[in-house]
Amino acid sequence: MRGLVKVVDDILQIPDLRRRLFITFGLLAIYRIGFHIYLPGVDAVFLHKVIEVQQSTGGGLLGYIQMASLLTGGSLSQAMIFSLGIMPYISASIIFSLLVKVFPKLEALQKEGESGRRQINRYTRYATVLLCIIQGMFVVAWLSSPAQAGTMRQSISAGGLPLQMLQLTVLTAGTLFLMWLGEKISEFGIGNGTSLIIMAGIIAEMPGAILTMVRRTLMANPDERALYVVKLIVLFALFVGIVASVVLITKGQRRIPLQHARHVKGRRMQGGQRMYFPIRINSAGVLPIIFAQSLILIPTLFLTSVFDEGNFLVMALNRNGFWYLLLNVLMIGFFTYFWTSLMFNPVEIAENMKEHGSFIPGIRPGRRTAEYLQQIINRVTLTGAVFLATIALIPQIIADAFEVDLLITSFLGGTGILIVVGVALDLVDKIEAQLLVRHYEGFMRAADDRAKA
User: Fold this and answer.
1) What is the pLDDT of residue 150?
2) Could you tell me which of 80, 217, 244, 423 has the fewest CB atoms within 10 Å of its CB?
């Protein structure tokens, strides 16, 4: 504890780092203020009644909207100006990352340097506006449709087409403002601004979930209260264990040894150094889970809004159903291999190694090296796919086993824990680099000193 306090004191002693941290937290505070401003024309009192009724029944269209909010770091069910979150911009960026690998013109544009990247960023912003309009139309349609809250049945927002257009404009402007806010955090703060905004949106939901669980424990019968306390303790232990495993897998990598060929330059012998080519176990990150759950969520939202709960397709795609879980696992595995194949080209890597005079000991350069790399990438990707599928299923498994709300167990797995852990590790690495470059002890050095003591 003393070492951690010293590290925090060192951070505050550096003016530039202190200023960047204050700017980062200040802009994130502005981001959270937007979640207390309702869209124009929304009946806030009736909205809260609808949310309470839907949460007590544990289903309906609102349940799927709340699950979508966990993917965005936004709050689609609260009808705020930042309800869409930053996810439309993330989705547009991912789409253009894929298109760059598919279309040669975009790839050539990216290779032009800074001007080409600016042009691709401009296309990404245009796509963000389009995605905001599409996603915002679903939110506006839900607000305009009749909802049931006890004996009352009315629309959450009833103002006609002009009000709907205004709400759609506000939702789009809110996401564009968050996109600008993320860029300013990256420029004047510390860390990736877009990732920090998503992490802040996810973490902001955790106190509410914890209070809900504590409130249920206090309101339970005296005979059942001990069981709820045991559930709280077990859930906390599972949370610590899952976070530790996510950190281990996120940092884990398969290192392939490389040897540089020796050559004579003048009278000196150069080369011969031994290096490592790292392949991360979870090189695809959180993207396969986002792709899989988003593709399943879209038809599920459509079917739930059109058909009743007794329909065969609606029951088959129920979050508790076997076919939903199986389809989710298969799609996560597919997108993990698909994304890894786009990011790693063994033939290109082998050719680059051959041109730079590097080789893998015991493996002939060229085609054999490419085959060897492909074999290793397939095995490592399989491990990453199994890990991602397990993380994605943990919330549903724990919710069924402990009879706890899925919105509470969602913080034990899925996209939320992966994003929070990944962004937190990246932020710690950046702060560590700022400390070490100024000859201060970093987090790792402080931890080593505590271990020796």
Assistant:
1) 64
2) 244
Residue 424 neighbours by CB under 8 Å, 6+ apart? 199
Spatial neighbors of 97 by CB under 8 A, at least 6 apart, are: none
Query: Is the torsion defined by CA of 130, 131, 132, 133 positive or negative?
Result: positive
407 and 211 in contact (C-beta within 8 Å)?
no
Mean pLDDT, range 139-150, rounded to an integer: 76
Calpha distance 137→316 (Å, rounded): 26
Which residue in the block uniquely carries the two structure tokens 């190694």? 353
Supply angle C-alpha 415, 180, 138, rounded to 5: 55
- Report the pLDDT value the prediction gives residue 42, as an integer from 0 to 100: 82
Gap between the Cα atoms of 140 and 166, Å rounded: 10
Q: Which residue has the tokens 């290096």?
A: 275
Instruction: Provide the b/e sequence for 317-326 (b: ≥16 CB within 10 Å).
Output: bbbeeeebbe
Give this prediction's pTM.
0.79
Nearest to 181 by CA among 322, 81, 255: 81
Task: In whole angstroms, give the CA distance from residue 188 to residue 28.
Answer: 13
pLDDT tens string 174-225:
999 999 998 899 889 888 888 888 888 888 877 877 887 788 788 878 777 8
Cα 57 to Cα 133: distance, rounded to the nearest angstrom = 30
Q: pLDDT grade, residue 309 (50/70/90)? A: low
pLDDT at 8: 73
102-105-109-111 Cα dihedral, nearest 10 degrees: 60
Alpha-carbon Rg for the chain, nearest whole angstrom, is 25
Report the alpha-carbon distance of residue 182 to residue 198 in Å, rounded.
10
Rounded distance between C-alpha atoms, residue 396 and residue 404, angstroms: 10
Q: Which of 316, 296, 390, 408 has its CA nearest to residue 68?
A: 296
Buried b (16+ CB within 10 A) or exposed e, 200-212: bbbbebeeebeee
The domain segmentation of the chain, as residue ranges, is 37-189
